[in-house]
Amino acid sequence: MRTHFVGVVWGHEYIERMLTRAVPALMMDSNLGNSRFRDSELHLYVSETEDSPALPALIDALERGFVGKTYVHKTSVEGNKYVAMTAAHEKGQKQASDEGAYTAFLSPDSIVSEGFYSVVDNLVEAGAEAVQGHFHRMSLETYLPWFDSVRNGKPTLKRLLRKEHMHPWSKSCFFDAQPISSCPSPIHWDFGDFFVARSYYLGPFALKPCSVVHERTCDYNLVSQSCNFDKIAYIADSDVAHGVELSHHDYMSDTFRPLGEKYNLATLRQHFIDCNAEPLHLYNFEQLLVFRWNTN
After folding, report:
1. pTM more than 0.70
2. Residue 41's Cα: distance from chain center in Å?
3. How far apart are CA 288 and CA 237, in angstroms?
4. What angle do CA 69, 73, 78 make, to 5 degrees?
C-alpha cells in the first residue's frame, strides 16, 4: 500500500541516534528497503535552525536506504517539543491523505525488528484502517552496550526486549511494581520468559487517508476520529513484529510514586474514565498483547 512515512527529529543527540540506531533497522530489505514501498514517500521534518553535523549523513542514509522518494522539510521548533512534533505530524499526515496514501509515524529513537513494516503493510493490504501496537522503553545507557554485544553486526534482533535494561518508567508499569507509575497507561504482567500487557494508549503504526484534527500526540485520538474499531489491526505478539524506544535512564523520573496498595483493573479503568479517556482507549485496553524477552 502506498504510504507516507513521517518522521520528526531535531537536536544533535536525536539526529545521531536516528542515524546510528533507528535507520539501520528501518532500511533493511524487509522494512523500508523493500520493493513494496517503491511508490511510497519518506518525509523528514527537522528544525529550521538545525545545525547538527550528523544531519547530512542522516539524509544521505535515508536517500540511499529507502526505495521510495525522500523529502526533508524545515519546521519551526519553539516552546513545547511535543506541540512542535504534533504540528509536523499533522502536516505530514494531511499531505499523505490529500494524496490518498496511508501515514506511518516514524520514531527517531526506536529500533524496530526485522520485517516490522512488511508486517504492518500486510495488515493494511488485508483491509486494516489502522495498525496499532506498543513499543517499550529501554534505558539506553545499559541497553545499547548489551544490544551491540549480541547483535553480531546485524542492525536489529528478532527479540529486542531485555528485562534488566527496561527503562524505570516501563518497569513501573508492571502490576506488582513498587513504586508504580502515577499514570500507568500500559499495565504489564510478567510470566518469566514473556509478559502480557494491556494499554490505553497505543501507537498508530499506520493510519488510513483521513481528515483529522491533531489535538495531541499521534497516539491520542487520530485513530478514534477516523477508523471503525473493528477495522483496527493490533500487533499482538512481539515475535510477529515489535520495537523498542531508547531513553535516558532518568527520563520521566518525576512520574513515579509509591502506592500503599496495588492497583486492580477496575480502579485503573475508572481512573482513565475519570481522566476523560476516549472510547478507543478503553477498547485498546481490552486487547491482550504478548511480549517475549530476549534471554540470550
Report:
1. yes
2. 19
3. 9
4. 155
Q: How far apart are the first and last CA of the chain?
A: 36
94-107 mean pLDDT: 95
> For residue 112, which phi and psi values (nearest 5 degrees)?
-100, 160
| Distance between CA atoms of residues 158 and 249, nearest Å | 24
Q: How many of the other CB atoms lie within 10 Å of CB of 261?
A: 6
Q: Of 63, 159, 42, whose CA–CA distance to 105 is shortest?
A: 42
Mean pLDDT of 97-114: 95
* Confidence band of 62 (pLDDT split at 50, 70, 90): very high
Helices (H), the chain: 12-17, 23-26, 55-65, 81-98, 116-125, 140-150, 168-171, 222-226, 265-274, 279-285
The residue type at 200? Y
Contacts of 124 (CB under 8 A, 6+ apart): 1, 3, 102, 131, 206, 233
- Of 85, 89, 99, 104, which Cα lies nearest the Cα of 207? 104
97 alpha carbon, distance to own chain's centre = 20
Which grid cell sits at 222?
Answer: 487520530
**Angle value at C-alpha 269, between 264 and 274, nearest 5 degrees:** 125
Q: How far is CA 109 from CA 16, 21, 49, 177, in A?
A: 9, 7, 20, 26
Among candidates 88, 103, 15, 105, which has minimal Cα distance to 45? Answer: 88
Distance CA 85, CA 90 (A): 9
Are the beta carbons of 69 and 4 closer than 8 angstroms?
no
- Asked if residues 86 and 220 have their Cβ atoms less than 8 Å apart, the reply is no
